Amino acid sequence: MHSFYFLLFFTLLFTAAFSKDKNFYSEKKKMISFDKNELLKMELPILVEKYKSWGPLVQQQAKSFLEKKYHEQIRIHPSLARQIEKKHKELVAIQSKNEEIFSFMLGVQQPHATNQKWEIHKGVPSQLAAHQILMEMGSDIIKLAPENRHLKKQGFETANLNTLTDRLKHPLYKQILDMPYRVAFFWAHGSDITFDKKMSFDQKRKLYDEFYELTQYLLKTYNRSGKVFMVGNWEGDWLLTSQEGDLNQDADLVRIENMIDWFNIRSKAIEQAKIETHYEDVRVHLYCELNHVSLVANKGYKRIVNSVLPYTYVDYVSISSYDMQGIGNWKSDPTESALREFALPMFDFVEEHLPPRDIPGKRVFTGEVGFTIHHINHLFDLHGLKAEREQARLSLINAKVNLEWGMPFWIVWALHNNELQKNGEFRGWGIYDQVHDRKRVLFQEMVSFYKWAKDFKAGFEKKNKKSLTPNLFREHAVQQLDLQISKYQIENK
After folding, report:
1. Where are the domains of the chain?
2. What is the CATH number of domain 106-486?
3. In this model, does residue 319 exceed pLDDT 70?
4. What pLDDT digit, counting tens, does each position of 348-359 carry?
5. What's the whole-model pTM score?
C-alpha cells in the first residue's frame, strides 16, 4: 500500500514537472524563432500585436533585448536609441514584472537632523520626532538621510558605523524604518565618493558591496511588509558641479563619466542583490535626483539630465525643481495656468532623457519643491496669516499640476525650517515652525489631504472589493486638491 502511494506521488510529481518543462520548452522554441533584427525594424503597432501573443518568457526577452540595444546605441546613434526606448516603453505598458507604486503621492520631508534645543521635540531625537509627526499627520511617505553627522547632531556615537547598512541598523533609524509608511526615500551616496578622478577597482568594489549589502538588508528585514525603498541622492547637479561659481558652463567631462559609473555600479549592485535574495512584497529601486533642468533645456549646458541620465540604469528620476517651478518662476503670475506653461514642458524634457526600465507609468517625480514665507513677504507683500495662506495655495496648485501630469510622488520641502537669514530669522520653508511651535496653514492642508486619502481608499476598497489603483487615486486626488485650492482663490486675486 505504501509503495502504491509512493508511486502515485512520484507520477504526479513527474507529470507536473514535465508539464512545466513542456511549457518552458514551448517558450524556448518561440524564442529561437524570435528575429531580433526584425524586432528593431518592426513598426510599433505590429510589434504591440506580436508582443501580446507571446508568452511571459518571450515578452521578458524582448524587453531585455531592447534595453540592451538602447545602451549599445545611445552614445553612437542617440536618435535610434530613442526610437528603441519608445518601443520598450510601449511594451512595458502592456506587461511588466513591476506594478506601479501605490501611495498617497503627496509627501512632506525632513531628511536630516535639526537643532535639538527646540521644545517641540521634548527630548526626542529630532529625526525620530519629525517622523513621528509625519505619521501622526497621516503621511505614508518619508525621506531619510542616514548619515553619521546627523546621528552626532542628535547626541549619538558613530564609531564603527561605516556603511549605509551599519547606520540603518542603528536603533534610531531602525525605529524610523519600522514605522507604518508605504514609501521611504534615502539620500544614499556611499562611502569615499569623489567625481574628480576615476574610481579605482577597490573603490568600485567597495561601492558595489555597500549597495548590495544595503539592498539585501532592506529586502530581508522588510520582507512581506509591502514597503518600497527608493535609494537615491541629494541634488545631483550640485554633486556634479558646484554650488558656487559660474553656472553658465558645461560640467566637467571627467566628472560626468565618473558620475555615470557611480549610478551604474549602484544600480548593478541593487539588481544583483534582488536576483540573489529571496523576498516578496517589498521593493528596492534606484533613483537619480537632479536639480538643473531649465538651465539645460534653455541653454543646453551639460548636466545630469542630458549628459548622465541617458547612460544610466536608474529606475526613477527625482527633480529638485526650484529652477523650473520655484517661486522665482512664478512671481509675475502666480496662477495655475502660468505654472502649466513653464513647468509641463520641463517635465516632458526630463522624461525624454530617461533610459528604458521595466517599470510602468511615469518615472519622473518632484522630489523637492517649496515656497518660503520670506519670499512671499517680499514678492507679494503678504504677511502673517495671509503669507501662510499663500504658501498653502501655491503648494496645493503645484501638487495638483504635478499629479495631473502623472507624477507618482510630490514631496514638499520641508516639515521644519532649516535656513537662517542674516538677521537670525528662518526663511520659512517649514510647514511646522519649530521655533514658535506653530503648525502653518499648509500643515493643516496636508493633514486634510491625508485624511481624505485614507478615507477614500478604505471606502473604495470596501465598496468595490478590489485594490485602488494609483491612476484612479491620482484622478480623485486632483479633484480633492481642486477643492482645497478653491478656498484661497478669492483672497489672493
Report:
1. 2-94, 106-486
2. 3.20.20.80
3. yes
4. 999 999 999 999
5. 0.93
